[in-house]
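BUG: 3D viewer hangs when loading the predicted structure for this chain

Environment: internal workstation, default settings.
Expected: structure renders.
Actual: progress bar stalls at 90%.

Input used:
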Amino acid sequence: MLLPRLKIAFAILVFVAVPAMSQASELKQETLSAWEDYLRTANLLMQRNLHSSGIRDAGNPFLWIEEQSDRSRRVRQGEILIAPLGDAGPQKVPDGLIHDWIGAMFIPNARINDVFAVVQQFNRYKDFYKPTVIESKLLRRTGEEYEFSILGLKRVLFEKVVLEGQFESHCSELDGTRRYCISSSTRIQEIQDYGQPGEHKLPPDEGRGYIWRVYSLTKFEERDGGVYVELEVIALSRDILASFRWLTKSVVERVARGSMSTILERTKDAVAVEHRSL
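Structure tokens produced before the viewer hung:
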């Protein structure tokens, strides 16, 4: 009888927690300041690795998987590795949480240009990443500077969350086998009652706060008969009430892992399809 009772208790707690996490919120300046401080530190680490000499630089390898030989072996064998960076869970900041995750995969028999041809097709993200991406559009391109928009759908517990985001991305080629792209959100707005007569867009930095800001670094390296792809995503969300944080921690981690895995898997699938069509 104990297990059914625990399941019932868990279900009740989830239903109680959801309204607490779903109440309207507003991004506060102290939360934004903490986010900017975190990004400054993260960028220092990113730049150090980006300008390393690759796998030969044991102190600062270009790829995260090269920090441990077991990671490289597992990814080379086809596994998609996903892990939080830093502490085991989200970092608590004033009225917010910072989530920092990294994922890595290997695409065999691919060339770096094949992968980039997919990554740069912003208008087709809605095809590559459906149903998570409802709509996508390239707004502007100047050299390797891109501006694009995404309308995305995410299910969190029992809620359907629709967000419209605008992003800037800068891509650089380090040499003939290594490239990277840095992307950041410039605007994220929640759309309430999506698809209903009362559909409306909330002002930026208002809403349930599942995602306030997003920053990402994607690395590409061609070797070993394919392309290694690593994606680090840093996101800022509203805080979760301390009384429910223990309950939702596993949910937050599951959503993060699922999102990272979906992005990498769908990218790998898109590269395969596009490569076959050539």
